[in-house]
Structures are given as structure tokens and as C-alpha cells.
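Morning F.,

Quick status update on the modeling queue. The single chain you submitted on Monday has been processed. Sequence for confirmation:
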Amino acid sequence: MDQKWNILIVHNKYQFSGGEDTVVEQDAKLLSKNGHTVTHYYRSNNELHTMNPFQKLFLPFTAFFSFRTWRDIRKLIQEKHIDIVHVHNTLPLISYSVYYAAKKNHCALVQTIHNFRLVCPNALLFRNGHVCEECLTKGLFSSVRHSCYRNSRLQTFVAAFALKLHRLLHTFHMPDAYITMTEFNKEKLSSIIPADQFFFKANYLEEEILPQPSAELMSFAPYFVYASRVETVKGIFTVLEAFKELREERLIVIGSGPEEKEAAAYLEKNHMTNVKMAGYLPHDQTVALIKHAKAAIFPSLLYEGGFPLTIIESFSVSTPVIVSNSPNISSNVKEGYNGFLFETGSSSSLLDKIKAFNSLIQDSKAEAALKENARRCYEESYTEEAVYHRMHEIYQTAIRNSKS
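C-alpha cells below.
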């Protein structure tokens, strides 16, 4: 019989909700469903808008070590008799003080890796429109020269200094297990985290009863779909440039983000009536639209912190994908088997792959095989049973490690 634990989930939510926030919620739901007692400690970046100038002045220091977090986490551990503290995002409001509170109270400590923040102040290994690994090859303070964090040298210096100091304090050796989704992530973080602390786990996707998409959006069928934040680094303009040349094809853009106005202006400027901006939609409505799409397009310019949830969602409803060939994104996509791969950032390459996809699905048997293979990929790696079994194994190991 599975051992049941009291688990504290810790996460600093983002201003624009994305895949990471979804993963946190779904993991918590999966644990509760399997009989564990789950307590949440969430903060939100929306709190920044309500801070007074004095609080904002001290934000760099609280991002390094938050006494509020220290007190809150210790209190929750004691009141809820927590066995395992599972941390996701900590910046900027929670900080790594959660590690110290967990270990002070003899809890097993687990950290899920969603990005590259431990080796890069802006967490992306990306700047000025391209992948950048200078912080890996030349040291953290390379980021200061480029103002990588929030376009501010001062804020970047504070972020880099905090990372450097936590390294000197061996803070990142404190977790009993790090969860990552790909070998690529392990490779990039291997200079910071001991190899035996890495454990691989896929993201879990809860299958749900899907609503019928709105008549307005379904009138746009047949269509491709883009479901991600609307911003350059996620590849929104790569896909729009491709569809500017594909006037006979239709695209539905699902999501919000910092460059929605720019994307809408691009459509208006180029008279692109073949693209519809649907804005933010609830998760079930998003997946329903993906289900009815010809294919889902994921054109991110980033490495991404792991295999994207949008691709898993597509596979779950038997929808093939067309994705950029960045290492994490393409890790489980096989050309012509469950999708197509194009050169990252190249709208012409994407254009060619959309044409290749359209050519292939002219054969109904080939189209059916693509859909079947997409679903098979989901069933082999991303089902509730498979992901929960792996999570339980990791927690057991973390508890053993915490006692050794």
C-alpha cells in the first residue's frame, strides 16, 4: 500500500499564468486524489502592484532571503505536520529561505526545475532574440553587462550576486531531490547540482470532459492553433510571419501576454483575416480547440524549462504538433511520426513544414497514423498512473536522503 504523506507545495505564481502554474496545480491535484494531504503556500507577482515604495526598495533583499517566508513555512510545517516540502518557483517573493525553513524542521525537500534560474539571472538562457550561455561559460556576472534581468544592471547585479552567494553557501545542495523533465536540463545544471540529486518525471495532464468549442471559433475550421503566451520569445511573430504567406490556411491564437497589442497590430497592418486572436481561455476550452485543430504549433525561441505542457495536451487529444527543434521542445517529437520539426525562429522553415504536413494528411491513412502516434506518446509517458508512480518513487527517495 502506498505510504501517505503530508505535503507542502510552495510556489510563487507569475503575473501571466502559464504552463508552470498549471503543472503546480495539476501535481497538487494528483497527490490529493491519491490520498496525500496537500497544503499550499502560494504567493503571486500581482502583489508587486500593491507594494508601497518602501517595500519595493527592500524587494532585492527579500528575494535573497525572506523572513516572512521563513516564519510562514516553519509555522505551516509545525501546524500541518509536514513530511515533504515540494518547491516550484521562489522568485521574487518567496526566496530560498523556504529551503532553510524546511531543513530546520527536518522535512524532506524537493525542488522541481521549470527553468534555468539557477544558472542564469533571467532564467531563460536567452537574450536579444537568441540563446545565450555566457553565464555558463563566462560566469554569472556576464549577465550584468547585458542587463539581462528586467533590463536593469542594478537588478541584474542583485540577482547574480544572490545566486553567487547561495552557491557559496551550498544552498542548492540542500534539496534531497531535484525533479527535471529532460536530460538536457540536467546537462545545463550539472555544474550546480550533484548528479545523484536529479530525478526525471514527466508533467502530468489530467484528462477532462471537454466542452464543445464556441460556434464562432468552430466556424473558423479547419484551423491550426497556437496556445501559449503572446510574446516574441514564445515565437508568436514566427508563426504570424508564416501565416502571412499562407492566406489559405487559418490560425487561432489562444493566450494572453505582453505583446498582444503588437500582434494585433501586425495582423491589421498585413490584412490577415486568416488569423483569429481568441485571447485567454480556460484550460478545458483551450484543449477542446486543440482537439479540433489540424495541428498545434509550438514555435518557442527558448530552450524551455522542459517538455511543454501544450504539446502533452495536444498528444492527449490525438492532435499532431509542429514545433521548433529546440532541445527540450523536440525531445519527444519525431518527424513524420507524431509531428514535424522546424528550424527555431525561422518562419520560412515553419512554412515548409506546414506544407509538408498538409501534403502528408492528403493520405487519410497517414493522417490517422499521425493522430494515433500522438495519442500513443501520451499514453506511454503522461498518464495519471505513470506520473503518480514516478512522483511516489521520488518522494520515497527524498525522504531516505533527508534521513541519511
